[in-house]
Automatic annotation (TrEMBL):
This is N-acetylglucosaminylphosphatidylinositol deacetylase. Its EC number is 3.5.1.89. GO terms for cellular component: endoplasmic reticulum; membrane. The lineage of its organism: Eukaryota, Fungi, Dikarya, Ascomycota, Saccharomycotina. The gene is Piso0_002775. GO terms for biological process: GPI anchor biosynthetic process. Belongs to the PIGL family.
Length: 304
């Protein structure tokens, strides 16, 4: 009975994954190739992402991903990092990492520093655009000074009158509840106050935390959203346009929302960045994360 249950779960996972490939990659590419001219222009080569008309906020911008540890950029933000780095968006993407990942030792922190640069390279970000600060120590019991985080952000972020700046970081729950993640959220809030408040040229996007079931739902929930999106666009586009968000945590904010879906190509890059870039972190449970995490195929970004 136990073995039969395991086999059933395996089959269900495999079927869901191949369905995801069809919905996220094959069907959008076919629609782009054989769809009407207006649909092709509207998609502009983006086979992976559902973006509202306000997506211009993440185009022609300098985008800073503010992370706590080396590997956060892959484990949580890779769909957004890869999407925003696409040439069609004309962005400059940078990583600001606030620790070396030295929870175990300084030696491991040095290793993880090198791994961050390698991961960023795989994701398409040059080493010059990776800023790593070692002022804060990685750890579940480490309390980071949010005002100091704001001061560092002010010193590292270059504001130009001709450029739009977008900050992307964790929400107040920090995805996993990690105190270092949550500190960055409050540090960004302090930073916004420090520069005199939000403006049209400075936007903040936070990654919505998912509950346990949704976090480890792999492609199951994403398939439902992609199915409705593809049906809406291909069959009913002339008279019906349905959008669905089945997240257990519907946005409590009334501002703009961006939903980023990976396709097979983007997921392959994420796997490479984690497995080859952050090799020291590939202990047994990381493979479970790679197989089950929804964050590798979906990001729900909310504008503050």
């Amino acid at each position: 009975m136990f073995i039969r249950s395991i086999l059933y779960v395996q089959r269900t996972y495999v079927v869901s994954f191949f369905l995801w490939i069809a919905l996220s990659t094959v069907i959008p590419q076919l629609l782009t190739k054989y769809g009407c001219e207006s649909d092709i222009k509207a998609r502009n080569g983006r086979t992976s992402t559902v973006l509202p008309s306000s997506a211009s906020m993440v185009q022609n911008s300098t985008i800073y991903f503010i992370i706590a540890h080396p590997d956060d950029e892959v484990m949580f933000f890779s769909p957004s990092v890869i999407e925003f780095s696409k040439v069609s968006h004309n962005n400059k993407v940078k990583l600001l990492c606030f620790s070396k990942g030295d929870a175990d030792s300084d030696i491991m922190g040095n290793i993880r520093t090198r791994e961050l640069y390698e991961s960023a390279r795989i994701l398409g970000i040059s080493q010059d655009n990776v800023l790593l600060m070692d002022e804060f120590k990685d750890g579940m019991n480490e309390n980071w000074d949010t005002k100091r985080i704001a001061e560092i952000l002010k010193s590292k972020i270059n504001h130009k009158a001709s450029e739009r700046t977008v900050l992307v970081t964790f929400d107040q729950d920090g995805v996993s509840g990690h105190p270092n993640h949550k500190a960055l959220y409050y540090g960004v809030l302090h930073y916004i106050k420090l520069i005199g408040g939000r403006s049209h040229d400075t936007r903040v996007l936070i990654l919505q935390s998912l509950n346990f079931l949704e976090k480890y739902s792999s492609t199951f929930l994403t398939n439902v959203e992609l199915f409705v999106e593809n049906i809406s666009r291909s069959i009913f586009s002339s008279f019906l346009n349905v959008k669905i968000n089945i997240s257990f945590f519907n946005s409590k904010y009334s501002t703009q929302v961006l939903k980023i879906y990976s396709d097979l190509n983007m997921l392959s890059v994420s796997y490479a960045a984690m497995a080859y870039g952050h090799y020291s972190q590939m202990v047994w449970f990381r493979y479970g994360w790679l197989l089950l995490s929804r964050y590798l195929t979906y990001n729900h970004l909310i504008e503050l």
